[in-house]
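#lab-general

N.A. 3:47 PM
ok so I finally got the sequence cleaned up, no stray characters, all 311 residues accounted for. can someone with queue access submit it? mine expired

B.Y. 3:52 PM
send it over

N.A. 3:53 PM
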Amino acid sequence: MNEPRGPVDSSRVPRFAGPATFARLPRLDEVDHCDVAVVGVPFDSGVSYRPGARFGPSAVREASRLLRPYHPGLDVFPFAAQQVADAGDIACNPYDINEAVEAIEHMAGAMDAKLVTIGGDHTIALPLLRSAARKHGPVALLHFDAHLDTWDTYFGAEYTHGTPFRRAVEEGILDTEALSHVGTRGPLYDRRDLDEDRRLGFGVVTSADVLRRGVDEVVDALRQRIGERPLYISIDIDVLDPAHAPGTGTPEAGGLTSRELLEILRGLAGCDLVGADVVEVAPAYDHAEITSIAASHLAYDLISLLASAKR
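B.Y. 4:20 PM
back already:
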């Protein structure tokens, strides 16, 4: 097996030149094997407020041009420790959510690599979790989001960006002893929303909890809950405060800083990460690529966590 092929050499080709694959990595068809595939899902037909996350994958790829080969926070070379490639986009039906969910599940399952997926709206987490559970059994879930995303239906629709984790619990693809929301905040419809969420098995770390308890204490609690289980991480970019991520469809005041979120992720080094997504980047509402840059760094840290575990 050949040594991993990494990003384009920026000393030879300027970062602003050439095609915008994630971190300027090779395409999937340019490598002889792949350990980690970065895949886009440009789908946003499940949104309940502002659309536009279908343009998220391309925006995040463009914003990832400045990423570099060494991660000092985790002391790892994520593109040398494993073969990472850009697998392009999963194209799915924008007019039929059920068909799109099935297509995403099928295409994700066909990839012989761990996936770091760039959305797209949060509807896509359900088929990605189905694919992960088929390979690893029910998985622990660490869900970073301003919202719970465990509502039952929206306008009668069972598959939306606000329902994926209720469906996942109902389908038995999540380990209900190890489910956590982080960064939730903002108004709800009723106190019963929280009661229902607890009934499904979720623990909640609000954005205020992160502020008061601090990153290290939060990480310790999350690691205890996750244990040795296979872990899936799902990041809705609206977990960040709108000051750090204005380009999203359902922004809520009072969110995490990008620094807090990155440090929480880095505290998970050594966990058995089996897949992840970063969703809900809607570049039409962004300013100076703030949101896309944050999302690209989150995806980079997820790839680095996979490399760290491999090491």
